[in-house]
Design brief:
Elements (H helix, E strand, L loop, with lengths): L2 H14 L5 H9 L20 E4 L2 E3 L2 H12 L8 E5 L5 H6 L5 E6 L2 H13 L5 E5 L12 E6 L9 H4 L1 E11 L6 E8 L4 E9 L11
Parallel strand pairs: 3-4, 3-6, 4-5, 6-7
Antiparallel strand pairs: 1-2, 7-8, 8-9
Bound molecules: S-adenosyl-L-homocysteine.
């Protein structure tokens, strides 16, 4: 089956699972996820499952990518949003965000993953994605404030620098909870005064780790 047809089936499954933002569904239909994983696994690229990307890391399940992207965009119309992602991994989540927002800034602590992601995103001509090899626990201070922050690795507690880099009205989506266990996907919205938090339910992510790695 062609990847375009398997992607159409993936989108039908996402719809059944409650993804209803047509902008998100359209981008998921267009984005070639098979280019973000090792060739040996490419035949499984459009299964709704996380897959290994080397160095002990995974590309997130498509449903989770769609869910987080939908949460970030909810109630917002085609604005030139600035979005920060912590945990570039394969670069797939960045590729999904790129056509939907103004600028994507993505930080990865493993240099080899960041370099590979850079090649893939360049090959797709996605020039509004900016990558940095660094510990994302401190965000990407120079480029904020952000209208949205997606954290794609789980922390026990939210690093305080992240909500601080949100613009007023900005929204952070992050899995919080124990490494190796089940976490809760939280949305934290920055109000004129303080923050408002609610939960999107249980998820499983690889852990947010301190420091950098080659
Ligand atoms: N968004 C990715 C999936 C990422 S898996 C994708 O679409 O493929 C989580 C990633 O977070 C891993 O690559 C891991 O190395 C990275 N990570 C973990 N802790 C981090 C930290 N403190 N700063 C930046 N990246 C981190």
């Amino acid at each position: 089956m062609t990847s375009a047809r398997t992607r159409t089936r993936l989108v039908a499954r996402l719809r059944e699972q409650g993804i209803d933002d047509e902008r998100v569904l359209a981008v998921m239909r267009e984005t070639p996820r098979h280019l973000f994983i090792e060739e040996a696994l490419a035949s499984r690229a459009y299964e709704d499952t996380a897959l290994p990307i080397g160095l002990g890391q995974t590309i997130s399940q498509p449903y989770i990518v769609a869910r987080m992207t939908q949460a970030l965009l909810a109630g917002r119309e085609a604005l030139p949003l600035r979005v920060l992602e912590i945990g570039t991994g394969s670069g797939y989540q960045s590729a999904v965000l790129a056509p939907l927002v103004g600028q994507v800034y993505s930080v990865e602590r493993i240099e080899r993953l960041s370099l590979r992601a850079r090649e893939r995103l360049a090959a797709l001509g996605l020039r509004n994605v900016h990558l940095k090899h660094a510990d994302g626990s401190i965000g990407w201070p120079g480029c904020g404030p952000y209208d949205g922050i997606l954290v794609t690795a789980a922390a026990e507690r939210l690093p305080p620098a992240l909500p601080e880099q949100l613009a007023t009205g900005g929204r952070l989506v992050a899995p919080l909870g124990p490494a190796g266990g089940v976490q809760e996907l939280l949305i934290v919205e920055r109000k004129a005064i303080g923050y408002e938090t609610h939960s999107l339910g249980a998820v499983v992510f690889v852990p947010l780790l301190a420091g950098v790695q080659p």
